[in-house]
Amino acid sequence: MMASAGILAGGQARRFDGRDKGALAIDGRTILERQVAELSTIADEILLVGAKAPQLAVRPVDDLVPGCGPLGGVHAAIAHAAHDITIVVACDMPYLSAPFLAYLAGLAAEWEAVVPRTDDGCHPLCAAYTHRCLEPITRHLAAGRLKMTDLLAAVRVRLVTAEEIGAFGDARRLLDGVTEGSRADRRKRDGLEAILRGQSQPRSS
Fold first, then answer.
1. CATH classification for the domain delimited by 3-196, as one of 3.90.550.10, 3.30.360.10, 3.40.50.150, 3.90.180.10
2. What is the rounded CA–CA span in Å between residue 154 and residue 167?
3. Which tens digits make up the pLDDT trace of 169-185?
4. DSSP string of 83-120?
5. What are the pLDDT digits (tens) for 47-106?
6. Helix count (H) and strand count (E) of the chain?
7. Using the 8-state DSSP alphabet, how is residue 205 labeled?
8. Which of 104, 88, 94 is CA-nearest to residue 176?
9. Which helix (H) or strand (E) holds 158?
10. At what angle do helices 98-106 and 31-39 cross, to 10 degrees?
């Protein structure tokens, strides 16, 4: 499988209590180091969107449309990627595993996006996107429609169930970030789930 990976590390999503989330240490390694170690086993290139890390084997890239939050980061990752499939992760998720991320990417050929869904809702910032998402993202950015809910309602999405995720470990541990768990987080994911419910047919060739 040929895939790119993008770590979203810019903007407000990068900050936690005044600190860089990716620089937080978990079990002796920073979150960013942990993510790069996992992604380097399954992706031919790793893009770091919105930040620099000269000590790591990543290619820093900037948002092409600044100030547009996570959607702008996803857009930059896909636009800069060398491959059709891009694994996109937020910079605050310390326990992502290569087998789980490879599973998401492996499902993407027949879909525009592959998004995990747990009891907490959908997780669009740990997902696989294809280059086919670039046009609708560009259109949404131009219109100021920056919600991930709007994007995922406009593309063909494969929802990865909690049962599927469970084959790779505890779903909450895999998908939670260092600032996850707030009511606002859950409301956002619940909104995604409501929109995506019923989208279960692969992309027509």
1. 3.90.550.10
2. 29
3. 999 999 988 654 443 34
4. SSEEEEEETT-TT--HHHHHHHHHTGGGSSEEEEEETT
5. 999 998 878 999 999 999 999 999 999 999 999 999 999 999 999 999 999 999 999 999
6. 8, 12
7. -
8. 94
9. strand 157-160
10. 50
Record the tokens describing residue 8, joined without a space: 């979203």
At residue 179, the pLDDT reads: 55
Q: Which long-range contacts (CB under 8 A, 24 or more apart) does 62-70 make?
A: 62/10, 63/10, 63/11, 65/141, 67/11, 68/141, 68/146, 69/11, 69/12, 69/13, 69/146, 70/8, 70/11, 70/13, 70/124, 70/125, 70/148
Residue 44 has φ and ψ, to the nearest 5°, of -75, -25
Tell me if 95 sits within 8 A of 35, measured CB to CB: no
Over the chain, what is the mean pLDDT?
85
What crossing angle do the helices spanning 134-142 and 69-80 adopt, rounded to 10°? 140
CB 145 within 8 A of CB 70: no
Backbone angles phi, psi at 139, to 5 degrees: -65, -40
Instruction: Classify residue 80 by its DSSP letter.
Output: H
CB atoms within 10 A of CB 76: 25
**Burial of 58: CB neighbours in 10 Å, binned 0-12, 13-18, 19+:** buried
With beta carbons less than 8 A apart as the criterion, state whether 89 and 32 touch.
Answer: no
